Predict the structure.
Amino acid sequence: MSLLSEPLQTNTDTIATNGISLGGSTCNVAVWLTHLGVPVDLVSAIGDDVLGSWVITQLQAFGVSDKNVKSIPNQRTGTCVILVDENGNRSMMPDFGANLKQVVDANLEKLISASDIVIMSAYTFMRAESTKFALDVMECVANSSSRMVIDAASSSPIQKFGAAKVRSYLVRADLVLANEDEYAALGVGAPAGWESNFQNLIIKRGERGALWLHRGEEVASVAADPTEVVDTTGAGDAFCAGLLSKLMTRPDWDNLVNLDFAESLLVAAHAAADNCKTIGAGPVI
């Protein structure tokens, strides 16, 4: 990660504060859920390289189980270069590495069946190499009592992959989270009222808070927690973790009431604000 102290300079130096930290959308959610006291099984893959070994030590430091993190021979561990400009805006350059080699096997099917909630990033669906894996996971969830939660990932992949295709995938989830750019990208070419097809759609609006749409109807909104923002990287993942830490206490998502929606958003906003206080996408340990 590079935290720029001035606009990016072309063909010369740009003063920055650089660092390396654990990351990846679902990994960030797992770290934050663990921090919030919610047990998690992280399903992921690393390469057989030095960085992969470092990832395991970092997961252990955060208390996240690595028993379902596969090391794949002759593959590199995924990375993401993140540039944070002087205004806090982020540009990300992800390399999925070994995670593109994931498959649904008997062990993963068993793990999904035993889970209350399965969380996935739409990035997985929108990469041609891992689309089948995303669909296979979705099918396993549909054949179980688990709930599916998906983060819409990012606006650019939605635009490239096709909003209609992404909507048809996301609409199968029990809950979808999207920031305003992703929400706008999902709506391209959609009929009026397309949001009503989603059971639960949460729109994250940064410093303006967030709102919850249930079958297209706004049922709750929350203001962002006032905080001195250092880095917004991973704030959406922390938000997701906070939200689910509260929803875990509600066994029946089909009969949530307005208080459930509002309280869950409030916990989510607190977690997102805590994430923004430091550099990186995880809690301070």
The longest helix spans residues 258-275.
